[in-house]
Amino acid sequence: MTARARVTVLTNPASGHGSAPHAAERAIRQFQKRGVDVVAIAGRDAAHARQLTEGALERGMDALVVVGGDGIISLALQVLARTETPLGIVPAGTGNDHAREFGIPTRDPEAAADVIVDGIVDTVDLGHIVGADGTRRWFGTVMAAGFDSLVTDRTNRMRWPHGRMRYNVAMVAELSQLRLLPFRLSFDGAEVSTDLTLAAFGNTRSYGGGMRICPNADPRDGLLDVTMVASASRTRLIRLFPTVFKGTHVHLDEVTTRRARTITVESPGITAYADGEYVCPLPVEVSAVPGALKILRPG
Fold first, then answer.
1. Residues 67-88: pLDDT tens digits?
2. Which CATH number characterizes residue 53's domain?
3. Which domain holds residue 17?
């Protein structure tokens, strides 16, 4: 009998353009094969999914397994942060940056289920955002503000085209209006006023499906890695873009990096996104919270 005898499986039906329910079926079959008792939940919407997750947590389980992408993981983190219940991931989203960080197989629900049964429980940090408007939000990967949050704002307003293409169209539109944005930041109390294209605050290394925006971030060091890009030149920003997938952009002149436990971020008219999800308008205080999450990963 496995150490994880009872798991709750939370599925986002829309993840990965609707492929999550199929991935969930495959993972659940594998759990049953391995003698694990499964309770499956799927919310009608985010609020309902959260309610079901909180109910499952009260009843007790050996792990909460999330089938989907970083969006549904973000929802689970709001419930699991600072609890003893570990998070298991069966990746079925478009970005899968959490899975990438912790070495969880991405196109193989059975292998991901095996990691949940046989893997180790790792204790890692989470990021925590407190907005001036009262918002409080946990995140696992990266909080972004600036050019990329403007692109996401625009993507969310667009009805066409669909999928990745919509994001690309939004990016081209924002590039045509590229400008430096005034930022006021404080890093553990040290204040900086500067003009930036974007700022990213990483608990882990990647966002946006493998862009290693904070290539040296470590979710066990109690700190956030901050990557700041300052370029008003479209050509240079477009050239910088491919280097982000390798993480080599941090060596370029337009890029500066810092590390801090708590950072305040202010820029008029800019919103914060974390784990790819809308959080709130700036200003915010964002901090690393050591050991806030238990996560299952390969041993």
1. 998 989 999 999 999 999 999 9
2. 3.40.50.10330
3. 6-118
